[in-house]
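To: structure subgroup
Subject: Chain for Friday's discussion

All,

I'm putting the inputs and outputs inline so they're searchable in the archive.
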Amino acid sequence: MTPSNTYVHPRWGLQFHWWAVDPSGQVGLFHSAFGPVPAAAHAHVAAMDGATARARVSHPEWFDWTCHDDPQECPQTHCPVTLDRGPYLFTWDEETDDRYTRFGVPKEPLLASEMPRGQAEAARLIGTDFLFERAVRVDLRYLGGRELLSGSDPDRNVAARGVRA
């Protein structure tokens, strides 16, 4: 697939989950119904769907979370969720930012090396050059014909960029 300025989504308007791995091997799970997805996720929909289906059975809390905070006080589309163990969770936030926003932070982050083989292979299709623990916001866009996935923490004024193939 050739990157373009047209964002791709395999099932526009329906929830699609894609996985990624950061440089430390920690896993991120991205929830998107309308947001762009990386070209590798679009090209490997069956792998992403398979990893999601297996994870949904063994870890429904990664997909069906409960807000513990007052939703009126929450600035994000989804309220913050704390997981005992799991991936960092991100969701597409078209209401305020048009970017992915981190809303789930694991007390013990999941490493790709600890995942079952098929799930790990799907997650490793998309590697980032930034750490999920430092990325509160994640942007996906195409600049100069190149896909760019960037993570930032507006509170720390930290930005990291890049997609590893």
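Points worth raising on Friday:
The longest strand covers residues 99-109.
The CA atoms of residues 8 and 36 lie 5 Å apart.

D.
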